């Protein structure tokens, strides 16, 4: 009996101990789980912090780029003179997104005039005038000059027409219409007629097909500079800013008969090839090919009239102009290499036969 009672007492004590032990074990378990949880959270938080700082590290340069882009988007136009209402003219430039037209746009805008560019972007491109888009004095209209256009202006520079042989031969009928109907559509004001001679400079077409752009591209790409015949035939090229100054001088003169605008400084094709090769610093060879048919032996504008009546003559030295054109073409080739979009004139349908140096 005593032993049974003792046993019950012991087992009662044990049960209590067991409960106590179980309770302690449970507490220990909860404590350890909690500890682990806290530990894991701190590891997790630590990890999260590390990831966050890694992301921050990667995002910061992107943020910087966005800030730079935003800065460049806050339009900074080239400086523009202030002209009083009386002196400020409303000027329309047809073909103003082309090579010559875009440089003329720059000059007239910087002189403080209001410029409207009309272009169908056949060979021109928005990129040539994009630095003016949004300016209060500037307007760009996508329009074909073969169709009438009704706007009120003080002066019209009518330059809309494909200029280089592959471009004007692409659709000869359209070229004729542009030069006839298009010109008639622009008449109605006093007329000045400029006879423009070979011009070069930045924004000229990569596939212009004329000797300066051909040689620059060949030299930059390490290809042979191709000279047709002996290379003794001469050519004369004016830098685009000289032409633009001549056009403005003619427009504001009272000369209504045609005036030659060109650079009379003659050079042989071979001289051009050697000079361009040297300025580019190219290892290209000069390759002589058989003479092109009907290739003129001499090209030199007579600018006596422009000198006398406009007080105009070209002032940009050949090397200076060539260096600017080379810089432009080099950049264009870089853009192409980086696979950036560069609009080009539409592919030309050229007649069979060799290209001439014009
Ligand atoms: N660049 C030269 O060496 C040179 C030499 C002699 C004459 N010109 C004359 O100067 C003018 C400009 O020549 P450029 O070298 O700037 O050529 P360009 O091809 O760069 O410019 C001509 C512009 O006229 C636009 N255009 C063509 N057809 C049009 C149409 N139907 N409607 C509206 N826009 C049209 C084109 O998109 C382009 O923007 C042309 O009339 C050209 O014949 C140029």
Show the helix and strand layout:
Layout: H1 2-73, E1 90-94, H2 99-110, E2 114-119, E3 138-142, E4 155-158, H3 165-168, H4 172-186, E5 194-196, E6 199-200, H5 211-220, E7 225-228, E8 234-235, E9 238-239, H6 240-251, E10 259-261, E11 267-268, H7 269-280, E12 286-289, H8 304-310, H9 318-337
Parallel strand pairs: 1-2, 1-4, 2-3, 5-10, 6-9, 7-12
Antiparallel strand pairs: 8-11
The chain binds nicotinamide-adenine-dinucleotide (NAD).
The site of nicotinamide-adenine-dinucleotide (NAD) has 27 residues, from helix 2 and helix 4.
Ligands, deduplicated: nicotinamide-adenine-dinucleotide
Query: How many angstroms separate the termini?
Result: 134 Å
Count of DSSP strands = 12
> Judging from the principal axes of the Cα atoms, what is the shape?
elongated
Query: What is the ordering of alpha helices and beta strands?
Result: HEHEEEHHEEHEEEHEEHEHH
**Biggest sheet features:** 4 strands, parallel
Structural class per helix/strand content?
alpha/beta
Provide a count of the helices.
9
| Global Rg | 37 Å
Mean pLDDT: 87
Largest sheet strand order: 3-2-1-4
What does this structure look like?
By secondary structure, the chain is of the alpha/beta class. Helix content is 46%, strand content 12%. The protein is built from 9 helices and 12 strands. The chain has helices at 2-73, 99-110, 165-168, 172-186, 211-220, 240-251, 269-280, 304-310, 318-337, and strands at residues 90-94, 114-119, 138-142, 155-158, 194-196, 199-200, 225-228, 234-235, 238-239, 259-261, 267-268, 286-289. A 4-stranded parallel beta sheet has the order 3-2-1-4, with helices on one face. β1, α2 and β2 (114-119) form a beta-alpha-beta unit. α2 crosses α6. The chain is elongated and about 125 Å long. Residues 343-358 have low confidence and may be disordered. Bound molecules: nicotinamide-adenine-dinucleotide. The site of nicotinamide-adenine-dinucleotide has 27 residues, from α2 and α4.
